[in-house]
Amino acid sequence: MRMQKAQPKIKDVAHAAGVSTATVSRALTQPERLSEATREKVFEAIQATGYRVNRAARNLRTRRAGAILVLVPNLGNPFFSHILSSINEVLAANGYSVLVFDSQQHGASEQVVSDCLLNGSVDGLITLDGRVSDVTRQTLKNANMMRQVVFCCEWSDHLPVPSIRSDNALGTQMAVDHLVALGHRAIAHVTGPAENILGRVRKDAFSACCAAHGLDILPDWIIPGDFSLAAGVAAADRILAMGTRPTAVFCASDAMALSFISRCQQRGVSVPHDISVVGFDDIDLAAFSQPALTTIRQDRPGLGRLAAEELLAHLHGDQKSDGPHVIYAPISLIERSTTSAPAALRAEPGRVAKPAI
């Protein structure tokens, strides 16, 4: 009967590399603390001996699962792709795997969070969904993991944890200021969902900015939306049927703005000649649409990176401040081809309108 060859152990790697077992362990868990020459010796020895890390045993010793749960409110939304990519890049570089779950699955989100947190299969949670139920809040408390939770993009005032977000009010102000600078005085707003924190903040900021500019916004010009393509189409049909049309529209998402423009073109209405449109997000398609979309750019890679780094700081005990502090990622106005001066101003003799970019 053939004897099975024993698996190499960490002491075998240490002997082959001529270092201590503590140095080998450090090379596997904190390689940045070793010199490049020492790291190379250890990794060459690992390859030569065929040593494999027993992750289950290491997790038991360190009381670390080596995984992070990320909740996304809609995995089909392209807005989240760059955020998730950055989260994964940062966490993978620090030895963590990423479990991604679509929190829109009815009733399943609470169960997934409960299962992952209470059985110790994850070390922390990054949630891109601001909807946090009482059950989930209680689960976090029961698992003693309130300090291992970070919001990204969305947030809830009912869960006192760090939040990485864009300054949505400032972005809205940039959009309104841009349209007003072009000469628009009649501006409509296609909102996000009423129950969504981003939709509420952008809608409130829109109203405040218009009031600051002394604009009279008709009630019909505030059009309910839900960030979807279908909502943009419905908003276009609604505006095009109005007796008194706005000359510009600020949409609370690029998806709504792009479908709004497409519907206008189908109906023979030119953007920006007949109506100007501004979006919010700067998804990849915004720069390649025809016409290219003027929008508010969120630093999506930055949002993901900051969220992952904030969580790592808490996990490693490097974070000095707990609680609901806010970290803002940069935000900017990207002027493209869907905004110009209103037709009435362009028709004024001697008037030189700012051209669309």
Radius of gyration over alpha carbons? Answer: 26 Å
Helical segment count: 13
Estimated share of beta-strand residues = 5-15%
Query: What is the global morphology?
Result: elongated
List unreliable stretches of 5+ residues: 352-357
Q: Note the main sheet.
A: 6 strands, parallel
Overall mean pLDDT stands at 88
- Class of secondary structure makeup: alpha/beta
According to CATH, the fold-level topology of the largest domain is Rossmann fold
Give the CA-CA distance, first to last residue: 78 Å
The CATH C-level name of the largest domain is Alpha Beta
The largest sheet has its strands arranged as: 2-1-3-4-5-11
Q: What's the structural domain tally?
A: 3
CATH superfamily heading of the largest domain: Response regulator
**What's the number of extended β-strand segments?**
12
CATH architecture of the largest domain: 3-Layer(aba) Sandwich
Helical percentage: 40-55%
Description:
The protein has 357 residues and is α/β, with parallel strands linked by helices. The protein has 3 domains: 10-53, 434 Repressor (Amino-terminal Domain); 64-161 and 302-330, Response regulator (Rossmann fold), CATH 3.40.50.2300; 168-293 and 336-346, 3-Layer(aba) Sandwich (Rossmann fold), CATH 3.40.50.2300. The protein is built from 13 helices and 12 strands. Strands 2-1-3-4-5-11 form a 6-stranded parallel sheet, with helices on both faces. Strands 7-6-8-9-10-12 form a 6-stranded mixed sheet, with helices on both faces. Helix 1 packs across helix 2 (21-29), helix 1 (10-17) packs across helix 3 and helix 5 runs parallel beside helix 12.
